Amino acid sequence: MTVVNGDASLTVNTGMLDNSAGASRTFTAPVHVPPGQLVCRMMLVARDNDANYNIDARLLRKSLAATSSLGAAPTQMGSVSSTSAADSIRVFTDTTISYRTISASYIYWVELEYTLGFYQTLAIRIEYKTSC
Q1: What is the enclosing helix (H) or strand (E) of 20?
Q2: Pairing of strands 16-18, 55-63
Q3: How far apart are CA 1 and CA 20, in angstroms?
Q4: CA–CA separation, 115 vs 55, rounded Å?
Q5: CA geometry: angle at 61 spanning 127 and 3, to 5°?
Q6: How far apart are CA 132 and CA 129, in angstroms?
């Protein structure tokens, strides 16, 4: 199944986002977490069998306040990257989350970046609790 602008090189294959053509791409998806919860960790679940490039995932937030600048850069809360090459699904984790407490005054999203490599992403998981 083609998922972006008729680009047959990017497919969903057995439930994973498959970058079989090895092109550079960036994807975003909203994150919905109840206000007051703490983000404890983010996990990238992926197959990275490319020794030269990695998958990068970031958790971002931006203020919804009327006084904030529309052009202001988002704040990065966490990031995780795949490492080395392995022909298996692995979990890469970041527990060093900044601005852990979710607020209704912000919007939250994840950004997934492929840089040329041949990868498959199964999920980006955000773990949240009342305490970490």
Answers
A1: none
A2: unpaired
A3: 13
A4: 7
A5: 75
A6: 6
The model carries a pTM of 0.83
Q: Give me the residue label for tokens 């306040």.
A: 65
Cα separation of 127 and 12, whole Å? 24
CB 113 within 8 Å of CB 121: no
73 DSSP 8-state letter: P
In this structure, what token pair is assigned to residue 129? 């609790």
What's the pLDDT tens digit per position in 58-68?
A: 999 999 887 77
Backbone angles phi, psi at 105, to 5 degrees: -85, 5
How far is Cα 76 from Cα 80, in angstroms, rounded to an integer? 11
Q: For residues 29 and 45, what is the distance between their CA atoms, to the nearest angstrom?
A: 15
Looking at this protein, which amino acid is placed at residue 25? R
Q: Would you kindly state where each structural domain of the chain is located, as residue ranges?
A: 28-111+123-129
| Residue carrying the six token digits 């202001």 | 72
- Under-70 pLDDT residues of the chain: 1-23
The residues that bridge with 92 in the sheet, in sequence order, are: 44
